[in-house]
C-alpha cells in the first residue's frame, strides 16, 4: 500500500481507510493477513507518525493481522527506527544469486533481533538470469555484468544445472529466507518453477551454494531495476 501525503491527520486517516476498504471489498474479505508498505521512505516522511498510528490501530482491531515493508537496498533498513520497527513482522527485499546484498551477517542479525522475517523477491532479476542469450541486453548493462552472468551459467552447466535450477537452488539453500515471491505469466511457468524447486537434490544445492560464493555483483545500478534503462 502506498501512503499519499495529506495536510492533516484526519484527512490522511480517512483517505487510507477508504483505500483499505476498497481493497477489502475487491477481495471479498473483512480482514487481510498482511499489509505491505511499498515505500520504505514513507517511514521517514512528515506523516510517518500518522502511518504508524494508523497501522497500529488497524492491527489492534485485527483488520490487518500484520504489517511488512518492501525495501530495495540495505540502506532502506535505516528508515526503520527502534520506535517503529516492532510494528513490522516482515521485510520484503530483492535477493538473487547475483544480488546478495541482504545476506550480510550484520543485516540478518539486526532483523533477527527484532524477530522480523525476511521475504525475498526478484530471484530471477526480472527474468534476466534465466536468459541464455544476453546480447539483447547489451544496451542496458555493461559487458562485464553480462559476461559475469554468462560465466555463472557456464559453470552451472558443467554440473548439468539450468539457469532456473541455479536461481532457485541458491535461494532455497538460504535458511534465513521465510518466503519467496515470484511472478509468472502463465500457469505452465508456475508449474515448471514448482516442479524444478521440488526436484532439486541436496547435492545440487551444495554445488549451487559453492558457485554462489563468487557470483555476487556489487554494482547496484545493474542489480537494482530502478536504475535500469528500458528493457523494451
Key descriptive features of the protein:
single chain; about 230 residues; alpha/beta; TIM Barrel; five-stranded parallel beta sheet; 8 helices; 5 strands; about 40% helix; elongated
Layout of strands and helices, then pairs:
Elements: H1 9-27, E1 35-37, H2 48-60, E2 67-70, E3 88-94, H3 105-113, E4 117-121, H4 143-157, H5 163-172, E5 177-180, H6 187-199, H7 202-212, H8 220-223
Helix pairs in contact: 5-7
Question: What is this entry, summarized?
Answer:
41% of the residues lie in helices and 10% in strands.
Task: Kindly report the spatial arrangement of strands forming the biggest sheet.
Answer: 1-2-3-4-5
Q: Cα-atom Rg, whole angstroms?
A: 20 Å
The named CATH superfamily of the domain at 71-227: NADP-dependent oxidoreductase domain
Ends distance: 27 Å
**Strand fraction band?**
5-15%
CATH fold description of the domain at 71-227: TIM Barrel
Which H/E pattern describes the elements?
A: HEHEEHEHHEHHH
Largest sheet, described in full? 5 strands, parallel
Q: Mean pLDDT, rounded to whole units?
A: 89
Number of helices: 8
Amino acid at each position: 500500500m502506498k501512503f499519499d501525503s495529506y495536510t492533516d491527520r484526519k484527512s490522511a486517516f480517512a483517505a487510507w481507510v477508504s483505500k483499505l476498504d476498497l481493497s477489502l471489498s475487491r477481495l471479498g474479505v473483512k480482514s487481510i493477513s498482511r499489509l505491505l508498505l511499498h515505500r520504505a521512505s514513507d517511514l521517514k516522511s512528515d506523516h510517518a507518525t500518522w502511518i504508524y498510528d494508523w497501522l497500529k490501530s488497524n492491527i489492534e482491531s485485527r483488520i490487518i493481522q500484520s504489517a511488512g515493508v518492501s525495501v530495495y537496498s540495505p540502506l532502506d533498513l535505516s528508515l526503520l527506527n527502534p520506535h517503529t520497527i516492532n510494528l513490522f513482522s516482515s521485510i520484503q527485499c530483492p535477493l538473487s544469486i547475483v544480488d546478495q546484498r541482504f545476506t550480510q551477517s550484520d543485516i540478518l542479525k539486526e532483523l533477527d533481533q527484532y524477530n522480523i522475517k525476511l521475504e525475498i523477491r526478484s530471484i530471477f532479476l526480472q527474468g534476466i538470469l534465466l536468459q541464455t542469450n544476453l546480447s539483447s541486453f547489451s544496451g542496458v548493462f555493461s559487458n562485464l555484468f553480462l559476461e559475469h552472468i554468462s560465466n555463472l551459467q557456464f559453470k552451472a552447466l558443467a554440473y548439468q544445472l539450468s539457469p532456473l535450477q541455479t536461481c532457485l537452488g541458491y535461494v532455497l539453500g538460504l535458511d534465513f529466507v521465510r518466503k519467496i515471491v515470484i511472478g509468472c505469466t502463465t500457469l505452465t511457468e508456475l508449474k515448471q518453477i514448482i516442479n524444478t524447486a521440488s526436484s532439486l537434490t541436496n547435492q545440487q544445492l551444495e554445488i549451487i551454494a559453492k558457485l554462489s560464493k563468487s557470483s555476487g555483483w556489487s554494482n547496484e545500478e545493474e542489480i537494482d531495476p530502478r536504475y535500469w534503462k528500458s528493457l523494451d
